[in-house]
Design goal:
Four copies of one chain form a homotetramer. By secondary structure, chain A is of the alpha+beta class. The first copy, chain A, contains seven helices and 17 strands. Chain A has a five-stranded antiparallel beta sheet with strand order 1-2-3-7-4, with helices on one face. In chain A, strands 10-9-11-15-12 form a five-stranded antiparallel beta sheet. In chain A, strands 8-16-17 form a three-stranded antiparallel beta sheet, with no helix packed on it. Chains A and B meet through strand 1, helix 2, helix 5, strand 12 and helix 6 of A and strand 1, helix 2, helix 5, strand 12 and helix 6 of B.
């Protein structure tokens, strides 16, 4: 399997199946001399972990990270940071029913075809549990980024949208409710929708918006590794993501150039920001903002047809403890991946200065 | 500048500014023994070239590719394929007016800030002229892909949408009109809209849809380098792209899991295909389809405020010969980037079999 | 720290300091479906581990590898193989005396200057303990290589040389003595020399010769990543290595072309093999053989001047349990790195066939 | 073909066969704002070019480099530098006799087996002509390196050795004779030897020593990408190289640790420098020096047996104009590859500071 590493200089390589001994990773290229805030790292993991509220999966996974290297007396040494998160609550028996069955819209079938074998327990390598390693690395990247702030939030659940532009929101409210929507009223509607869906044994999709502020001018490598291209890849690599747009996005396609152009202020900032903080693949110092589409979770608690390894259609019913909507727990993952992209470009940018 | 290479095994590295001597690239990893169809390559370049119809820029650039290596007696040898496309119609004087001026929503300002210098003529490295090199490499990649077919087409211009699903379209019609929309009636509306916009001295955005067929099961590397994540990065790296979605995309976020899941047929194909041909980052053998958002071209033929290098707002007017809508010429670029992604994953997939 | 990964498709990434919690690594790209021989892996680690004989360091490190992922029911799944080796015998107090002192010909000074900080315990990241992770990955690579055999042995200790050509040796004898020289008589001389040196509180260098057989024609990428260039890098990346030569090596520089050329047999094999099994960076099917130079270990049990962090010359004496000659324990490391190189080129070669 | 790129941040990618239209390359990552000295670049090419003296091949290749991008008004812009060197003196008819014949100790056989096809003219991609692209990139890298100086010279031809240590030499004399040995007397002997060998229709090997001065402390990435490991790979990737040693090299293996250790001066420099300027893979500020072994050129002007494509041994005689000793022309190539390694590590080192 190629594609287990992300980044060029600030680089995360991960390993681990959801029901193996542990998941984890190695962070290469973290600059030396950073006094790490370990509580902040654990806090990010806690935002992602199952069982944190009554609208997410009720699995219990403490998700405690153990750092094995690269840190000496609390300070990064510049050497690779190895870490593991042990899988403490494996309950492998939950998954024996899918050993010879490919669930619809899961990766069971494609893994089996590609590799000729698979760890079928809990989705194995294809499980979103893998994203916990990203959250650890992203939490460290955030500490590398200095003044840059990254705030993601739930901007829709099903057809319930937070209509306000991000500029009108108070991001300090995002964590005040279980769905991570900074508008309390809309959050309540979203939560109600998720509870209803769960009661139906069904699931629902949604979108996450992410806003990055205080980005210096000059991040991004402007041909294939444009800043937004890497952000897009980073987001699309998260489980269940179906789309990415930044700045004016798909709406911008309906606009005229004369409306869409962001006129300058004398200091180089722009009067509008339909560009989403990026020009020609390079940050221009304005807010970067983008939106990520998450499909509904494939595991529903209803009877569905699946495919057996022998090529027969069999009836199966989702078991276990799954998320009715992936979006609330995806917030810290979106932020983590954004932080990895920015940290990498920051180091790259230093190299020729 | 990092980020000038695309791909791991089938790898394209490019160079060139729009008004330098030449643009070009090196293709590494092209398998040996392929009898190249050079006409097909030139045909792709002709689909991208300026001046091809009355709704695109009237610049005259013949865009003839010269292959310098890697091909012997018409057959690939497995060694790197070097190629150049000379810039024959440079008209550098057209651009002297932007030497000390940053145009709104162009990359002038960000390049200048990042590098402290820039080739300002015609956008230099940030010009979409760079994509001609991608088209060459993509045309070769297509010849590596065997039975896989890639068809992109214009699915919207401004608010004029081609509403039919791709399954209802006849892709052999795409090239029959200047806007590259396979529905003749909608194409006419789109063309009329573009002409109207041009007359206003303005520009307009649009979307491209791309459909990939006959993909074998198993392409894609399923953590960071998911098939759709690489496709997304590939598309977002094209000039003027603001968004990417595949399969159900942003619409899928409003659906329930019970609606969204693609149930299997006994042969492993699926009854629906909201997944867009990809499960867990790996192709499942169904059609891959995605949509790409292009913003309106920033160069408008109207007076606009720009920023001078001295920090003053100055009035400027777009000159030269520019596209009122980038979408028709973007079709071969979208296909080329898709071909590069697939060829690379095809080679990667072979490596462990 | 960049440079923690080795390989393109069969790729090892490592982490860990000698006195941290654990060292370990991630192996990407191992093909799926391989029934691993775990005993063989542990055996390689045992060949490298301290305390195995009376001519190596008497430190006690059991060096037990724990696999965390990528293996299901004993078989590789194609997903990344994460593993750790815990540091059980840390004895950190042994190293407090070097906290503010840079030992001569160690990496203390250069790490401190480069990173501004370091884990000084036992050499930290610069310790040869890091090579245990390479041995694990190399042992798995060997199981990927099929019929290819890799045999390294001690070919000199100080000025005691094994003069016989490798063709005259019986590699099954290599493990029959503590110094890993397949000639019993020479081995005894080498052992006597090492014991004498240790008694003097001193150390001694030596060379390792490695022979690779049954290599298929066609491995190696013939410009920058020539097969011997990667083997050379692999060997030079091992601690204490000062030189590498393959085939006729430095001796070949004194020869004439008419003597040096390897004439063909009708089957494509060659009558002589001064080329060392590689032509133009690509394996030609003949034995690959090379020689690696190891300097004497820098830690001597004698008084020596060191440099204090304050810039003063201070007297210090080596403490702890160190190897008087690194060569015997380097044998499995040389083999492991050779295996990694070959496995990677084998996968690369498959990609275009 | 993988392995056509060298470097991580300062990266050279090359293309070209000896008898194709052109060879050339792309340099990524060259910092912006450097006023290039084009004469210095051409001078390096002239040091490598055929026909420069009466002891090298009498082929006439002017080797003029044309820069296509990345440079604006003589100054690097930070964008990729594309360049070509046209093959003006192809004389392809010289090579028709090797179309279906594999010459001994050439890459004909291995290329044919690996790729199933090859451009047989003049060795095609395996020709040392490819190194001209390295010389161009190295000449630019030298201009990035500032105060660092790189001096290579011929230290042996056959069994004629320059016995003096490099410290006793005056590098300004290196270019004063055709063999590039800074000692006039030894140079004469070497030249006489080469002329004698040529008269015999034979060839001879030799060694190149390279000395790098004024290297800042801290270059090199200390696990797999140790500074000397990359230097070693760089040298071993040059055609005809069979060995590499740095610092005490193979001689160091006979020494005791108490003799070999380099004791410090109070300022961090060392009293001796058997380490060759590198500790733990990182430069320590002392001179870096290494030695490279070149085998005798395989093309001899005598009758030799070759292998036909049909598996028959056939008599052939070398034709064309070849070097009797590759070493004099290898000097600028060794320097160029060293410059590429250092420039890359310099950029990498900046990234975390």
């Amino acid at each position: 399997m190629a594609g287990n590493s992300f980044g060029t200089l600030f680089k995360l390589t991960t390993f681990g199946e959801s029901h193996g001994i542990a998941i984890g990773g190695i962070i290469d290229g973290c600059p030396p001399g950073i006094q790490l805030d370990f509580e902040a790292i654990q806090q990010e993991l806690d935002r992602r972990k199952p069982g944190q509220s009554d609208i997410v999966t009720q699995r219990k996974e403490p998700d405690t990270v153990e750092f094995l290297s690269g840190i000496f007396e609390g300070v990064t040494t510049g050497t690779p940071i190895g870490f593991t998160i042990h899988n403490t609550n494996q309950k492998s028996k939950d998954y024996s029913h899918i050993k010879d069955v490919y669930r619809p819209s899961h990766a069971d079938y494609t893994y089996q075809q590609k590799y000729g074998t698979r760890d079928y327990r809990g989705g194995g390598r294809s499980s979103a549990r893998e994203t916990a390693s990203r959250v650890v690395a992203g939490a460290i990247a955030k500490q590398v980024l200095g003044e840059i702030t990254i705030n993601a939030y739930t901007s829709s659940v099903g057809d319930i949208y937070l209509e306000q532009p991000y500029q009108a929101l108070d991001f300090s409210k995002t964590e005040s409710n279980a769905v991570r929507c900074p508008d309390a009223e809309v959050a309540e509607q979203m939560i109600a929708r998720i509870k209803k869906i769960r009661k139906e044994g069904d699931t629902i999709g949604g979108t996450v918006t992410c806003v990055i502020r205080n980005v210096p001018v000059g991040l991004g490598e402007p041909v294939f590794d444009k800043l937004h291209a890497e952000l897009g890849k980073a987001m699309l690599s998260i489980n269940a993501v179906k789309g990415f747009e930044y700045g004016s996005g798909f709406c911008g396609t309906k606009m005229k150039g004369s409306e869409h152009n962001d006129l300058f202020n004398p200091d180089g900032s722009t009067k509008t920001n339909l560009s989403g903080g990026i020009q020609g693949g390079i940050s221009n110092g304005m807010d970067i903002y983008f939106r990520v589409a998450f499909k509904p979770v494939a595991t529903v608690m209803q009877k569905q047809e699946a495919l057996s390894a022998e090529g027969e259609l069999v009836e199966m019913q989702g078991k276990g403890r799954h998320d009715p909507c992936v979006v609330p727990r995806a917030i810290p993952i979106v932020e983590a991946m954004a932080a990895l992209v920015l940290a990498d470009f920051m180091l790259l940018n230093k190299s020729y200065q």
